[in-house]
Amino acid sequence: MLLIISIKNVSSIKNNNMTKEDILQQVNEVFIDVLDNEDIKLNNETTAEDIEEWDSLSHIQLVVAIEKHFKIRFKSSEIQSWKNVGEMIDCIETKIITA
Amino acid sequence: MEFNHLKKNLKKDYTGLKKIKVSLLSDTASQLLVQSIRGYGYEYSYDLDIFEADFNQIDRQIMDYSSELYEHEADITIIYESSHKLLSKFNKMPADQKKDFAENHIEHLDMLIKTLSAKLKTKIIYLNLAEINDTVYGNYANKLNNSFVFQQRKFNYLLMEKAAETPELFICDLSAIQSLYGKKQLFSPSIYINTEMVLSIDILPKVAHGILSIVAAMNGRMNKCIILDLDNTTWGGIIGDDGIENIQVGTLGIGKAFTELQYWVKSLQQRGIIIAVCSKNTESVAKEPFEKHPDMVLRLDDIAVFVANWENKADNIRQIQSILNIGFDSMVFLDDNPFERNIVRDNIPGICVPELPQDPAEYLQYLYSLNLFETIAVSNEDAERTKLYQTESKRVIQQQKFTNEDDFLKDLNMLSIVEPFNKFNTPRVAQLSQRSNQFNLRTVRYTDADIEALATDNDFYTFSFTLEDKFGDNGLICVIILKKENDTTLFIDTWFMSCRVLKRGMEHFVLNTIANFAKDNGFSIVKGEYIPTAKNEMVKDHYKNLGFEESGNFWTLNASDYINKKCFINKK
To answer: If one looks up domain A18-98 in CATH, what number appears?
Structure first.
């Protein structure tokens, strides 16, 4: 038990180096690449309404690209659950920490 | 090729690209598959106009003759039924019917194909099943005819049998794609649950490539020749330095990799792919292993053109091309040396130069994964092709001896058999129709089924021509389809010819045949048309050169006062 906790601590310390800001910036790059639009500037409140190319189809592409970029896997229930980019970032953050 | 790259292709400029109409019917969500196919089409210079049916509309679209499918009139219809959907159907079946699942489903598919073909002249590409192992019976499923595993495999097998007897049906081997890349890459459960898409983003480009290679073959784009480097490509080591006793080929060590590669090349040769050699070596030294090494699989007999010298490889490949008379874009060049590969790639537009892995052990698996030799027809003549090109090399040498062209042609003792399409020549006619790009006036492609239909249509007159001479038989090399336009006019619907018989006076012989046929059957005018493509520039002035008069977009010849043109070919 002790061993497991200590491993968890090590990994969370390692990954805590990445702030939400960092994650947002990297997600922004993924959006630019996948949606092929240099002008995309995400913030926590951004939703699919705000970006023309972000539809249900490209959403799947974004999800796959983000999974690859951060080497994480979303649960299928999470994929459609985020109301805005901020919630997506929160979700990514929990995965990176527990990874 | 990544999906994102294909998606970006969608924004490219498609003007001037060849338009092909495609319909896609699928029982799962297919939007991204459609994007991938259209995006991959761009790589082949095709502007694919794709009608995507609403999801799960396969039966309705086909059974209802007023559906959008029939309105779109696609040249090619792609049908994708997923193993996931079939599994849920299977699971709902009463237990006692499960053993008949594959047979019933193939019957259903057969009915759909017949319904579709009765109304629409379209080729069909069906994706076979990427197997799901539901492990309900474990490995025992292989012994049990009512397991899903058993029924899926049986269905894939029955599908091959169905395709073998149905000329318009072609299979895209999704099952082979899955065995190459694995279920984990093919299928992403969370995306399936959220979107009803069964193909993962990563596998879409591979599937699109599989489909496009068939589409390209249907449109006459296929590789016809493989050019081999020798040292460290065909055998291990350097023949000039190591000597015949030290090169690596056979069953020992890395020699095995080269032997297996040679067996693969030999199989290609036996199915009609031309093998040429292009090597930086002294010719006699390069030929020695082919003649004397006991473990060599390839022999000199298998090589149509053998070029070994110290010249630049791009020039040598141009020389090979001038003997074979096929497009550079139908050639594959294998060389272990990245420097040579780059020279060839930079100087010979269109040629395919695979980036062979550094380790020869990996050559073959890598080459398999590229699927370089797609085709949509094979014929008995394929196996003879090497001999044909070897005799062509002899003819080239003979011709150099004559200063007078006519004397050379007379000396060849050329004979031609002229006959209408029949069941013996149909496969070759259909194949030549798919393969001929350069000497092809209208580039209308005909399948076996079309040819059979034409042979019995009273408005069409069909002619096939063979050509033999003292060096050998070229087989069937030219096809003419004439259409009765009205009581006075015969239209040349199709005129294509194999480029290997150029400059023998075959054009004159064929025109004499056409004009005399017209005269004998009361037609006074023979009408021709040239439809330009990216590849048939060679025959742009074909009708003009033969004495036709230009009239609008067409060319006409008065048959009543036609005088036979000079030629040295006799009817056999």
So the answer is: 1.10.1200.10
